[in-house]
Amino acid sequence: MDDTALTIHEIQEAVHAWVARWQEGYFSPLANLARLTEEVGELARAINHLYGDKPPKATDEPDDVPSELADILFVVVTLANSLSIDLDAAFRDVMDKYEVRDADRFTPREPEG
């Protein structure tokens, strides 16, 4: 893929195109949930090595937080695709929810300038 920014819809299409290449197709939602749990664990390990109290072993591969986050995104998209969920619409809905629910929850930043 090139370096052009992708929309959520384009990400879902790219993942679908990749999955469609294989006869196995999408894993079941439960299998994807297990995969997601594994990937989140790998992210937790990487962050703990870089920012936590647990240093990596000398034999460990270097931690790559961006790659771990991208793996999580890939699995989330495969799960959404397998369930016919439009993540663009779902994300818009959740941002609307946060805007209303958390409108007075946090301290606003002062305008710069």
Provide the fold topology.
Blueprint lengths: L7 H13 L8 H23 L13 H18 L4 H15 L12
Helix pairs in contact: 1-3, 2-3
What does this structure look like?
The chain is mostly helical. It has a single domain, classed as MazG-like (Helix Hairpins), CATH 1.10.287. 61% of the residues lie in helices and 0% in strands. The protein is built from 4 helices and no strands. The protein has helices at 8-20, 29-51, 65-82, 87-101. Helix 2 packs antiparallel against helix 3 (65-82). The mean pLDDT is 93.
Summarize the structure.
With 113 residues, the protein is an all-alpha fold.
Give the total of domains: 1
> In total, how many beta strands?
0
- Termini gap: 39 Å
CATH superfamily: MazG-like
Residues in helix, %: 55-70%
| N-to-C order of helices and strands | HHHH
Largest sheet: none
Tell me what the CATH architecture is: Orthogonal Bundle
Category by helix and strand content = mainly alpha
| Shape estimate | extended
Number of H- or I-type helical stretches: 4
Strand content: under 5%
Features:
113 residues, mainly alpha, Helix Hairpins, 4 helices
